[in-house]
Amino acid sequence: MTNTRFPDGFLWGGAIAANQAEGAWNVGGKGLSVADVATFKANVDVKNYAAHNAISRQVVEEAALDPTDGIYPKRRGIDFYHRYPEDIALFAEMGFKALRISIAWSRIFPNGEEQEPNMEGVEFYIGLLQEMRKHNIEPIVTLSHYEMPLALSLKYNGWVARPVVDCFVRFCNVCFDYFKPYVTYWLTFNEVDSICRHPFTTAGILPDCLTPGKEQQEIYQGLHHQLVASAMVTRDCHAKVPGSKVGCMLTKLTTYPHTCHPKDVELTLIKNLDNYFYADVQVFGEYPRLTLARWQREGIEVQMTPEDLEVLKQHTVDYVSFSYYMSMTESASNDVERTPGNTIVGVKNPYLESTDWGWQIDPVGLKISLIELYDRYRKPLMVVENGMGAKDTVVDGEIHDPYRIAYFKAHFEQMREAINMGVECLGYTSWGPIDIVSASTSQMSKRYGFIYVDQDDLGNGTLDRLRKDSFYWYQDVIRTNGESL
């Protein structure tokens, strides 16, 4: 018999990141982060992620000296820093069981290397976590979500340098010490695999500061440092926070063969294995042999100590979380149409529709992803990002968004089917339950939320919050634990 409800205790909610929501970039002792130098490029095609993510040391140094927030939307966010009680109340009104947030590293350690934390930053997060608990909302806390201190990027070229590991471990231990009364579920690195797609955003790595001819090797060295740091803080969290659960977080880039031609199938297999490898290390505690063999073929030498390998092996994650927005296909042919996805480009699937940003809509792909991940890892899963960016229009104070409701309904139905097949899924947090600044293009007009925020791409607006039609729809889904679907 098919179960129409989700499991008891299922964590329905939403997810935001500090760098896209908080604003208050120069308030409370906060230091600059890598997100604070990301610019809104009005004249660049929203589908051209390479141009949106282009960065250089000169550009960063000039941005660091700019005292304004004019072309830096993430410095503004949606002023969640000052308005979080109002926003948490709206999430509670929807019935949220959980909210995924991140801790801005540069709010706790402004330059990343201080020995003592900035207590004003610590007190801010205590207040936020207490507010969530007051409304019976379970915090899911990401420790690194695209917001490392800019000073570490400029001094060390980010995670390429080993000293950054100790800086991060110190930061995380402060979080465990102060926030342990409020937090059970932790995530180490958001989309840890993204270091290879946008190394500056993910790991503070400036491409023009890499050694010529050794770019890939140094990026993988930075990844290794992140994976070792993740294992270290998993160890420390388990020791300091009784009953804590620490997870990894993967960008699930589900890829199908464009045709049944064996070369298309082979390329797809290789692409999917490469996507898994980052989570493999955190779940199995060792690097996949195929990855090590590829590095050897390509002349990539990543420095690893015996202690590194031991900590990876001993301190694996408790659950696997992932983002899922779209699927794509792979082809050996050059004569195919390509389309963007979550900061990547793939071959367009002719059977799927696309958003205004070119991301293909594939609800069945979420079910496939859940089944694949659970079969591979045999650990509890959590969908911590999913949603669609869209242009919303306010008409007489109302926002009618049937396209968003249709998107979520289809994805929830497929998620329920996967659970009914035996997949253990702890919860689901939609991306950007309230409109926030886009990660990839720094836009406000790319809206994900159930709650509309009155602000445009240039920062104009009242910041008033308005409930969309989807707000009430999601409220009903949560109230009935999915039975209303």
UniProtKB/TrEMBL annotation:
What's a single GO MF annotation on this record? hydrolase activity, acting on glycosyl bonds
Tell me the enzyme class. Answer: hydrolase
Q: Which UniProt keywords apply?
A: Glycosidase, Hydrolase
Keyword Hydrolase in record: yes
Q: What is its EC number?
A: 3.2.1.-
Does the UniProt entry include the keyword Hydrolase?
yes
One Pfam family this sequence matches: Glyco_hydro_1
Q: Fetch the InterPro entries from UniProt.
A: GH (IPR017853), GH_1_N_CS (IPR033132), Glyco_hydro_1 (IPR001360)
The UniProt similarity line reads: Belongs to the glycosyl hydrolase 1 family.
What name appears for this protein in its UniProt entry? Glycoside hydrolase family 1 protein
